[in-house]
Amino acid sequence: MSILRKKIFDLFPSSFGLDLSDLSLKAVWLDRSGDHDSVLSFGSVPLPLGNVVDGEILNPEAVKMAVESLLFKAGPKRITTRKVICSLPETKAFLRIIALPKMEPHEVKEAIKWEIEANIPLTLDQVYYDWQILDLNLTGEKGKISVLVVAVARSVVDQFTEVLESAGLEVVGLETESIAQARSLLPEKNENTTTLIVDIGDRRTSFLIAIGSTPCFTSSVPLSSQMITEAISKSLRISFDEAESIKLKHGLGSLVMKSPVFQAAEPVLESMASEIEKSIDFYLNNLKYSSKVDAIVLCGGGSNMNGFLPYLAKRLGRSVEFGNPWVNIKLGREIPLIDRKHSVQYSTAIGMALRGLDEYEDFA
Predict the structure, then answer these.
(1) Which structural domain range is residue 266 located in?
(2) CA 181 to CA 28: how far, in whole Å?
(3) pLDDT tens readout for residues 99-116
């Protein structure tokens, strides 16, 4: 069984997924009846700039109010459960694949403590951590097992928990954005496929490479959807809001004719493409968990910009596709309440909500 299907913290039934990022909060609440899943509620509210910066909550009261607003506005059914599974910022987390000699699980528990000290820039008493023995021996070392380790700074976890509890919620699960995205975007049956997920956010772009549905490598760079808007604003000498409106309505314009919008955005787009290539190169030549990257999947609000996907596919010389966060949800013939274009913005929240469904099923 994959790490993504295991319990990491103890959970209880009827929890919703919450994606808490620097500039917005998104929620998804799912229900499972037999072999059929449905979306009970979803919604999003903005967070004013400066309240959460690089995953650190600077204004707890503002975030609390935003959570309360989201719970009130989400629909079509109001979110009545108080149990929440919340995302943790990727920039504050450490994900590592560690090779250990073959040993019993109880022995791994002790060995992991030493490995954490050696592999992350924080001491053991400064982090919360979890681990899972993988079915695959990713390092290829004979007589070794591969263990996925995730560690997050205690200060961040405590901060998120305190704010959510102040809003009247019971935090029953916490996990990194990358694990949630892998759960929602990667088909469970593609066990031998290596996929790069590119999450284009308002403040940063994050990369996740997974084998099947198991995360193997994560990184992020300070390139974002907002930087594209700022580049358009500066080049065309218009306000940020006007540039954002043009970007949302018309996208990059003609790539062939190199429209003024595309010319303005091209340096940022080129940097994004270059960082994707660097991530793939590092993974293949340094980590060597796979011989190739089979697919590139886009998610995040910034990925919806018209013209971005074809630009990236042409620039990289690779097939690039939008993520489908419903791939592991049993909707049957039901059409998701969140349309395909906006679904990729909810990938993290859907992954959190899906975890809640799976663990609810374990309790049933």
Answers:
(1) 189-322
(2) 13
(3) 899 888 788 888 888 888
